[in-house]
Design goal:
This protein is of the alpha/beta class. Helices cover 50% and strands 9% of the residues.
Amino acid sequence: MGIKVIGAGFGRTGTLSLKAALEELRFGKCYHMIELLGRPSDVTFWEDGSNGKTVNWDALFDGYQAIVDYPGYRYYRQLMQHYPDAKVLLSVRDADSWYESTLNTIYQAGPKGWQKLKMALSLPFSPRLRSLVRIFRMADKDVWQNDFQGKFEDKQFAIGIFNQHIEEVKRFVPPERLLVYQVKEGWEPLCRFLDVTIPDKPFPHLNERSTFQEMSKQLY
């Protein structure tokens, strides 16, 4: 089967909506951070990538045809080489609104207070919780410490990294293989790029902050 669409955009750029849209367009299942949280044992593959080791992409993405969001966006170059026929979808949004959204959601993800205590007490008895802890540690290292150099709370610095990533993707990916896209544009540019028929239904708009917060609570 193989990956046909590679998402290169940061989280909080409409990636959950894109996951739903790509699945509606019959691109099989779409791998997203929510998939990793539902299959926490996958963290072993992603830790290999994070540590510079070879990743068995075909085993990881068995049954999937698209990938968006973290951790996949960090490996768009490797995925392009492994799946040479795949197209690259760079999801973007206004930088200020992206920063505010990220600061108030995924930057604060992870267990808090009593959740930490509950997890600590349950860890010896739960392989799933141990894998979740590894996921959050990996994300902290990859995103907040490496990509944002421990300075995400510096708004202008963080926005600079966001814009730099967009420009790097645009320089690296051949134009005929790339779509720079905002989910507010809806079906038309996405379907034209992927050469598929526009569905006769509204474009999905998911992952509002309240939805994210509710999803976070259900993890622990």
